[in-house]
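Narrative of activities, Objective 1.

The group set out to show that a structural description can be obtained from nothing but a protein's sequence at a throughput compatible with the screening campaign. Below is one input-output pair from the validation batch, recorded exactly as produced.
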Amino acid sequence: MLRTLVERSKGMNALLTDLLDLDRLDYGIVAPRRYPLDLHELIRHLLAKTKVLGDRTVELEAGECRANVDQPKVERILENLLANADLHTPEGTRIWARCWREGDAAVIAVEDDGPGVPAELRDKIFEAFHRGPDSVHKPGSGIGLSLVARLAEMHGGRAWVQAREGGGSSFRVLLPDRS
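Output recorded for this entry:
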């Protein structure tokens, strides 16, 4: 019973933190503190320490990808995308993380070969508190992807989801490389 109480307290703390972050972003209180980072290395390090995936593994596609970004904010983006992939794909579904340069920006992607996101929901799922129709019996608050989109916008970028070639979803975040 104590273990359950501790886990639920952690969940409430995460929810409260996300809500406060959304509020701060709404009021423009938070601004990115950018510095040069190797995003591939950041993803590798995050995958080694995150607990949002349980015992699932994520395949990291190698490649160099440097950009001037706010490290803690990009970590939050990645954790939310990974948690979303874990929550909305069946066990055994493959999950990938990768990043690459696209002009003067970096792109981070978390992809899976799960059921995918219907085209009519692709914009809505980034709205606060919007949860897909299959989410009724799943944990979550509908804040994670909204926070991803808002943190991307804070960097001057954007977040979106598209169908992955071969099936599944590709959640992507574009982060302009600014000083």
